[in-house]
Amino acid sequence: MNVYTLRGFFLGWLSILLIHCSNPDWKATGKTEQSKRWSEHRVNDWYSNQPWWVGTNFCPSTSVNQLEMWQNETFDLTSIDEELKLSAGIGMNTHRIFLHNLLWEQDSLGFLDRLNAFLDVADRYDIKCMIVLFDGVWDPNPKLGGQQIPVPYTHNSRWVQSPGAKYLADKEKRPILKSYVQGVISHFADDDRILLWDLFNEPENPNKKSYAEVELEDKYVRAFDLLKASFKWAREVNPSQPITSGVWGNFLKKDDHDTVKIDSLHAFMLDNSDVITFHSYDRPSVLLEKIKYLQIYNRPILCTEYLARSRDNTFENLLPVFKKFKIGAYNWGLVSGKTNTIYPWNSWDSVYLNEPKVWHHDIFRDDGTPYKQSEVDFITELLVVNKQ
Hints:
Layout: H1 3-21, H2 25-28, H3 40-48, E1 54-57, H4 66-70, H5 77-89, E2 94-98, H6 101-124, E3 128-135, H7 165-169, H8 174-187, E4 194-201, H9 219-237, E5 243-244, E6 253-254, E7 260-261, H10 264-272, E8 276-279, H11 284-294, E9 301-306, H12 315-324, E10 328-332, H13 373-385
Parallel strand pairs: 1-2, 1-10, 2-3, 3-4, 4-5, 8-9, 9-10
Antiparallel strand pairs: 6-7
């Protein structure tokens, strides 16, 4: 290890030690022993006491990515408060939020304080959070400090992977990544403001239209290896919340005999997650195929990404389906802002010069007015009025 790797490693484990010292019951309650996957009975009993969870993948409009969202200089709790209030106002009760390993290495205790402040605001609006620790999507070369300004009219032009390619390729970085996973989870292991832990978002995503030329050639193998390590590290902490990692894309591939063939990485996710999670940017008929298949696992199901309006993947088409099966639902985006996710994925290789007629993601403009009032009325009717 070089001096910077050693520094990060020891700072990370010092943080974990300080966390444990402030919680003397951590060891006494058996948290140092690796736990097993929750049984079907345990997880279904847990879910039977939960409401129908509906919310967004949340990043404040003032942040271009996870690093800008959480770094001390750009942590914008005022905007976070205003925007979480907006979501609560239409009946949303949960959000999925993305962290980053570099934040832990930079200032683990300050990072935990800011995450705690975020959870306090969410709790004020009766919102529980799903925490994402790693992410395999978009820029594989994240850097701390000031983030680049967004590329105009381009979807998620500055979102960054966690860990980046450098850390993913270097086995010597594993102790830092382990201290990050276990440090964050152990700090909030018994915190009821957290709904569950999502260990790795789309780990093997090749980012074909955006960053394919600078991705690791063996990303699939390395990401799969880190995915397996992440589950092991999380099980060693044994949090009170379930853990998961979601299948995505066309995971239901079929052979010539129409038999489903799921690759090894996605099969691992399904076989090791306490709660089954998946993504669906599909039309309703394909969504129903995915739900039907995932029901064979006899576990709670949450859709952790959806909403691609031009694909008939809309609130009006999907939310009633999710409600019927009590499937938790997290659309991408709340308030339009620096991530530019109102623009579609093809904005990476197509020219956009104005706001698209049909927004891809997001619900509100940055002044708090809805993109589409009838859509917000529909969501509110489903989540608030029908609940009364």
